[in-house]
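chain below, 450 aa
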Amino acid sequence: MSSKQNPREKVNNPHIGNTKENKNSKRLVIGFIIFAVIVVGLIGYAFLYDRVLKYNKPVATVGEREINGKEFTERVKLERNSYVLQYNMIAAQMVLVGDNSDYVSYYKNQLTQLLSILDDTEYFGEYVLDNMIDEQIASIEAEKMGITVTDQEVEDMMQELFEYYPNGTATPTVTYALEPTSTLNSQQKTLVAVAPATETLALPTATLEEIAQTVESTATETLPPTATALELTPTSEEISGTATPYPTATVYTEDIYKQNYQDYITNLEGIGVSESVLRDYLRNYMLVQKVYDAVVSDVPRTQDQVWARHILVETQDEAIAVLNRLAGGEDWNTVCNEVTLDQSGQENCGDLGWFPQGQMVEVFETEAFRLDIGEISNPVESSFGWHVIQTLGHEERDIESDYDYQRLQSNYYDLWFQDIKDSLTISKSATWADHVPSEPSVAYNMRVSN
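prediction:
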């Protein structure tokens, strides 16, 4: 008896199973390909960002100006390279004086300092970035002032750095004549015990002949017993042959300069620094100097100055005790020599000489300029302690020392620059440190610890 197949009963078909397996395999392959594409894409983007994209992003902005990652990274490498070259030069000098422990210790100290600067990579990078920001600020002001640096000026500076002077070196000239120092009035003479002029010894005036004889006799006495006077012609016929000439120094020609320059550029390119970065560095340096000169040219050499002296003690009670002693009629010099903490004050009774505004701590300076001549202040506190101040003079005077005048100019520029900086919107990116390279660095076998 035959049986009929139930139409609802499922028929097993091998082709249907294969189709499902193929679909699942295709899904797995497609999924793997998509995953691989994503991974490769992420790796490629990371590589592209690390090598290209991140360098085009600004690491800092100054107003509307940007400092991009590429120029920042190359600038750091340029300055690191100069430190490495300096390190290697000092290390070579240390080898030459290896027998002198004092010199070796001195050079080792310098090398250790250079290493500490280079090894603190982030600090070094931030130092460079801050300088680049300041250069942009100066550049903004230079544009307002109409100050520029030409390509020829950059080239001239480059030649100077390589000690190539095709037109000879410039001779500095002094263009400022100081006014005579003012004399003390009767009140100031009373305030200050002026030491009498010391007696000047009268020296006999020698004639040129006597001086010549003295020099000749002294020179003869200092020669070794077997030494004879130098003669330009041979004194014996037994001497034969030609004299060996001293080596002639090679003339530093333009071709030699160009070769030295190209060697240096090749070295920079080897560490990933382009020639344009070096020239931009010099251009910015010169621009800052021009802005500085323009700003400080307004600082007059003649300044309102005071002449003051002080007694420095540790506490307010000690300062009050000093005031009481002075009010009781004791001599300033006596009190100062007994109690002042200012070491230099013990030698000159606290006399600080003449000074303009901007050279002393503000609270001290304010009080000194406020006092009348001869007036003694109440105790004044500063970071050094407690001062009792007496103003001995107050007048318009020339800055006698070039150093003091340059310091005054520097202080003036710093205040001017800070005002400009405060008026600008300046920001650093959160990722600026990612652009800081750690190379070039000192070779391991050259490190002073080794």
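The beta strands are 58-62, 65-68, 302-313, 351-356, 380-382, 385-398, 426-428. The CA atoms of residues 117 and 124 lie 7 Å apart.
thats it, cya
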